[in-house]
Amino acid sequence: MGRLLPWLTLLILLALAGAAAGVWAGLIVVPRHFDPWARLDLRAEPDWLTGFRLSRLTRDPEECRGALGETGLRFTPLPDRPSDENCALSGVVRVTRSDVSFSSGFIATCGLAAAWTLFEANALQPAAQRHFGQRVARVEHLGTYACRNVYGRADGQRSEHATANAIDLAAFVLADGTRIGVLNDWNAKRGSDRAGERKAAFLRDVRDGACRFFDVVLGPDYNEAHRNHFHMDMGAFRSCR
Asked: How far is the C-alpha of 106 from the C-alpha of 4, rounded, in Å?
């Protein structure tokens, strides 16, 4: 809801403005590019409606799987699985690879997988090209699904990982084999170490770019628990730290 509210407010204001001007919606043919209700094309360049359309997509697994099917993401839809421990899986897919390979396949909500395709094409790969002149070939992750509370505490709210709605990224491997890891390279010494400086700058670009598509992005600057990875999820709140 945190991502959706600003867009709903904007759409309501636009609707009111149109009504005040005496515009009859039934007489207007809205181009798909400007239609907020059109299904998000995950291959298209992001625009001002992408966030709203992505929010809608995350709540409609069937529509979401259709959008994913138009991309190069390799995935398999999985059946819903109930749980007595508040760890039910609903609208999930198993992802095996995209334009990058993964350290292992993973289960993810369709919304998380959709956000990944946008992030990879519009944030991750452009950052790699800017800093290294080559693409990311492989992504190392620490998993998506784990039936647990936040930080693994005995009490408290369930983590977004409990429903496969989050992914933790540990490292990125470039086409030439160069590995950039969050643990060792986030605080790489700057100034005297040009290679380390580029890796640190790349990781910050990746973190900032992820915030355009995921609801929550947490990294080493957030707390000690995230010193070795970026946490990215499609939860109900917005945070980029």
From this structure: 27
**114 contacts 234 by C-beta, under 8 angstroms:** no
pTM for this model (two decimals): 0.85
Confirm if 60 and 82 have CB atoms less than 8 A apart.
no
Structure tokens at 191: 């100034």
Q: CATH assignment of 73-240, given 3.30.70, 3.40.50, 3.30.230, 3.30.1380? A: 3.30.1380
The tens place of each residue's pLDDT in the chain, 241 residues long, gives 555 566 556 555 555 544 444 444 455 555 666 788 889 999 999 999 999 999 999 999 999 999 999 999 999 999 999 998 889 999 999 999 999 999 999 999 999 999 999 999 999 999 999 999 999 999 999 999 999 999 888 888 999 999 999 999 999 999 999 999 999 999 986 555 788 999 999 999 999 999 999 999 999 999 999 999 999 999 988 999 9
Any residues with CB less than 8 A from the CB of 188 and at least 6 apart, and which?
A: 195, 196, 197, 199, 200
Distance in angstroms (rounded) separating the CA atoms of residues 113 and 67: 10
Q: Where are the domains of the chain?
A: 73-240
